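Researcher: Here's a chain I'd like modeled. Treat it as a single chain, no partners, no ligands.
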Amino acid sequence: MKKLLLILLIALVYSCSFQLKGKNGEPGKDGVSEIPKITSASIKASMEYLASDELEGRATGSKGIEKAAVFIENYLKSNAIQPYFKTYRDSFKLNGLEAYNIVGVIEGNDPILKNEYIILGGHYDHIGFGKTVEGDSIANGANDDASGTIAAMELGRYFAATKTNKRSILITLYDGEELGLKGSAHLAARLKGEGFNAYTMINFEMIGVPRAEGEIMAYMSGFENSNYAAKLNEYANEEIIGFFDKAQQMQLFRRSDNFPFYQELNIPAHAISTFDFTNFDYYHHVDDEADKMDYDHMASFINKMIPALEGIMNAPTKEVILKDE
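Model: Modeled as a single isolated chain. Structure tokens:
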């Protein structure tokens, strides 16, 4: 009964994030939907399930990650995001375990540009259990990386509803990141083998907490590898993505799910994060919990990404390029 009530609550939150208007733009009975809103409430509803104790830290091969996968599949289906493959699951074996990425697609509205794809993603697995603190041993992985997973899901919901994207969008949620980027590596290799026409890729990695006052809202790993950050800022009409000097020192570009897509597909592929190792004390810790996320920050960040991404998706030519080309 509790699980049923949770699902009904989440459905209510999503339905309330769409405004209805009449033919003259006023509320009416004809049920024409307005631009969907990405709200702190809709983000929180997803977070409180994906980072709940019921999912036991979403370790690869666990019952908890299976529950997370079903939740994500139902979210995509209920928001008219179609499976890219025969089903939403891109399955693979990992150390004898069953593993699966979740992949949905939103077709572009331009007859030519829809053949080019923008990939958005995040990893939905986590480490399962960690060092026990005050009787709690479940590493819920709210910031890492339920936050990035939800960002990709919410952006997918927005574009599936508005259909404002000329290029097609692949929504990709990865398994096996915590075991060495295994899910993204599998998917990137599969897409390459199928001749997939990828344009760019963004991986959302730990966007659940804000940076310090005075810092740029988010940073991009591999900032120097392409002009992606500059183009996103141009279309956002503000500087939302910046350079983080420690990202190169810590080799963050190679340590997140963007890297296999860069390797396999030779495209601009980066991770975007608001976690900079100074603003959250619970990396791979049992206290990485839903109640420690800043939902207003998350909603602000995701909403700022919408016009930035729309500019990339709808530009008549490929403006984002690798700098070593």
